[in-house]
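ESCALATION

Customer reports they have been waiting on this structure for their group meeting. Please prioritize. Original submission:
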Amino acid sequence: MGEKSAQKRKFILETARKVFVEKGFKKVTMKDIVEACEISRGGLYLYFESTGQIFLEVMKLESEETDDVFSDKITEDATAADILVLFLQEQKKELLRRKDTLTQAIYEYYFENQPGKKDNILKKQFDSAVKIMEKLIETGVGNGELYCEDCQGTARNIMFVLEGLKISAQTIGITAETVDREIRFILGSLGVEME
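Update from on-call: job pushed to the front of the queue and completed.
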């Protein structure tokens, strides 16, 4: 793909993201994306076949950007505990962000398209996050900065707590104090005090 095509594709994805944030997933049509991008229907179909395909690419792009932001904040001398605290602080920001979030659209997409599928991307992302968290905890335990008897179980529990907070943020609402309380509990269970 040439540079111009890559830029056009990225523009479509960034514009489509705004449409998905505004409308969720279920209500978005290819026509909505065509109108938001101010391109022809054929121009959109050169790059994407469906709203589902566009949405998956938007999610992938968002995940990459989030990973980049997180990675950029990790210093060279950061400990496992430092990285864990930074990760939880980034999660807090995401949880408290009321606008400009894809959470509703993500759940709509998965309820409509993924139930029971073996290749469920959301499950793969969750499982991957658990493995990364487990390795981080194991490293901290190995360095003597964290305490944990069951790294895998604790990692899984942390990710379930964060997922539950995401749902709560979208349904019943949560406060910074609620998120801080859960973060303190997570860190305290690993022997880390939150400032």
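Sent to customer with the following note: The mean pLDDT is 88.
Escalation resolved.
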